[in-house]
Structures are given as C-alpha cells and as structure tokens.
Amino acid sequence: MRVVDYLRISLIDRCNFNCLYCMPEGAEIDYILKQNLLRDEELLALIRDVFIPVGFRRFRFTGGEPLLRKGVVELVRRVSAFPETQDLAMTTNGFLLAPMAEDLYRAGLRRINISLDSLNPDTFDLIAGKQGRSRWPQVWAGIQAAHRAGFDPLKLNVVVIPGVNDSEVLDLAALTVDRHWHVRFIEFMPIGNSQMFAGCGWVPSAELRQKIRDAMGLVESRVTGAGPADVFQIPGALGTLGFISQMSECFCDRCNRMRLSADGWLRPCLLNETGQLDLKTALRAGASPAELREKVRQLLAIKPEINFKQRDSGTATGTYTRTMSQIGG
Ligand code: SAM
Ligand code: SF4
C-alpha cells in the first residue's frame, strides 16, 4: 500500500528570480503578508506534534526561494535533529547557495536539488530574469559549493521549454558523464503561465529520451528513486538522468506527498486543493495538536481519491491561477 510520508514545505512564497515559466516578470501575485507566514516555532511545532505523529518522515524545504528565508540554516538544524526525520532535502535556485552550502550541510541537510535550466548565461538570464550582471556564474558557483560540501545526490532540475533551452538537452545530460550528479528533465506545466505555455508548448520526456539515446545511448538505471522521476543513465556515466513526466503520464497513484504552503495551508495535491486545511489559522485559534492530527488524518484518508486529473473536470478550485512559487513547486 502506498504510504504518504513526504511533506514539501514552502518556507516563503517570494523569490529573487522571475523564471518565465514560474513567475514571469509583471505577473500579479498576491504575496503572503509577513504576519501570515508560519513562524519558525509554529512550523516546528506542526512538524513535531502533528506531521511526525501521523507518519511523515521525509521533508523538503522549497519556496519561492527557500534560501531567502531568514534563519533557514537553523530550521534545517532543528528539523534534521528530530529523531524521526529520515530525510531532509531542499529545492533551490542556487543563487544564494555558495556561501551557505557548507553551513546547510553541517546543519544536517543531505540532499539538494538546484534548478539549472541552461549552461548558457544568456539563455539562463532570459529564463530567470536579469539584474545587471548575469546571474548564471553565481548559480554555477552555488552548484560547485554544494558539490564540495558533500551533497549526494546533487540533483539539477531542468524545465525544458521548446525554442528556449531544448537545444541544450544533450549538453545538460553530458554533465552526468564524469560527475556523480543527477540531471532531471521536467516537463513544462501550465501553471500561472498560460500565455507563455500557449505560445511554446512542452516537450514530452519520451522525445527527450529518444534524442539522448540516439546521441549518447541510454539505459534504465539501477538507481531508482522513490519520487516521480523515471531514472536512466548514459552507459558508463557516473550520474543519472531523471525524467519527470507529469504532462505525458499520470503518476498520481504513486504520489507519496503533501504540500504545506508558507502560510500554513496543507494541500493534498499540486493541482487539486480538495480538502485543503488551513493549519495556521487553526493553530493560532488554539487548536490542540490532537485536533490538528485528526484533521490531517482525515485529509490523508481521502488523498487516494484526489489527483491531477480532477483539475480538468472542475473539481479543483482555481489552481491554475496560482504560480508554482506560490504553491511551493
Ligand atoms: N526556487 C526554487 C527553485 O527554483 O528550485 C524552489 C521552488 S520552484 C517553484 C521548484 C521547482 O518547480 C523548480 O525545479 C522549478 O523549475 C519547478 N517549476 C516551476 N514552474 C514550473 C512549471 N511551470 N513547470 C514545471 N516545473 C516548474
Ligand atoms: Fe523562483 Fe524557483 Fe519560481 Fe524560478 S522556479 S521563479 S527560482 S520559485
């Protein structure tokens, strides 16, 4: 039976980038007011007294950009110190990572996913938005610092966008040949970017695999993750290639996660808000841990009936208007 034991925690909905596919510049976003963000103590209490007792064991900090959250290293230290925590990971754009990588590792973070959509600084800036100097060198320095600090696996996330970075797929895949890195190609999703999506569409993972297979060979990897990626390898490569195909395949029946937004909403699915819980308001109104646990258990019980597909039949509420940075990708 599928066990839902993985919680993705958005630490903040703000970001220092404006990725075209996530929060394009000028997008009207209702940012969470500071007083509505879960405070550190509230988040830690929810993890310790609610999520761990109902069975969550694996946690990932995401955002927005999680490294913008003040005190993030201390949060890592405290969550990794819970004896029940089996895994603590982070997804970041890497821009602030270089000076923090070692502290994060020492605090107990062991797995990190860094978004890297291009090896070409101009293309990178086109995607992530530019502020004066190119931001690519600083992100690359963050990746190198994470590598030196000992993060393993070190995963690089690539959202493939036709006409923008799809021509770089072979170069990005080649990063895994002599490095113990995992490059994961993610199908572009229409979340908060409908205009762009309508203009350029998306590339199915099967097409990418064929391209890589033809050029470099590709075999199924013996390393398979518990997550949504199908994992392959270039023959003889040290690292692996993952393909996350949420557009071309439905992997809802293997979904083992829930999502906690920075303002304390617990969502059962990326694209479907059915049954979502406002834990922060309940907590601040004085709900006891036992009451909150009961609410979370009830949501866990209906989770198998909730999936991506329902967004199309109108049972999900307004999900598409939110950006990935708000949901906590
Ligand atoms: N800021 C961090 C980062 O970029 O890694 C963490 C948050 S971001 C929302 C988490 C992941 O969602 C990133 O890997 C990003 O590439 C992915 N993402 C954002 N928008 C997406 C979209 N429209 N389609 C597919 N993936 C998307
Ligand atoms: Fe920021 Fe990550 Fe979204 Fe890019 S993908 S805008 S880095 S939250």
Describe this structure in a few short sentences.
With 329 residues, the chain is α/β, with parallel strands linked by helices.
Please provide a written account of the structure.
The chain is of the alpha/beta class and 329 residues long. It is built from eleven helices and twelve strands. It has a twelve-stranded mixed sheet with strand order 7-8-9-6-5-4-3-2-1-10-11-12. Helix 1 crosses helix 10 and helix 2 runs parallel beside helix 3. It is globular. The site of iron/sulfur cluster has 13 residues, from helix 11.
> Ligands in the structure?
S-adenosylmethionine, iron/sulfur cluster
What would you call the structural class? alpha/beta
User: What percent of residues adopt helix (DSSP H or I)?
Assistant: 25-40%
For the largest sheet, list the strands in their spatial order: 7-8-9-6-5-4-3-2-1-10-11-12
- E-strand count: 12
Describe the protein's topology:
Elements: E1 6-10, H1 40-54, E2 58-62, H2 72-81, E3 87-92, H3 101-107, E4 111-115, H4 121-128, H5 136-149, E5 154-160, H6 169-174, E6 181-187, H7 194-200, H8 205-216, E7 219-220, E8 230-233, E9 240-244, E10 257-260, E11 265-267, E12 277-278, H9 279-284, H10 289-302, H11 324-327
Parallel strand pairs: 1-2, 1-10, 2-3, 3-4, 4-5, 5-6, 6-9
Antiparallel strand pairs: 7-8, 8-9, 10-11, 11-12
Helix pairs in contact: 1-10, 2-3
The structure holds S-adenosylmethionine (SAM) and iron/sulfur cluster.
S-adenosylmethionine binds at residues 15, 21-22, 62-63, 65, 91-93, 115, 157, 159, 186, 188-189, 191, 193, 324-325, 329.
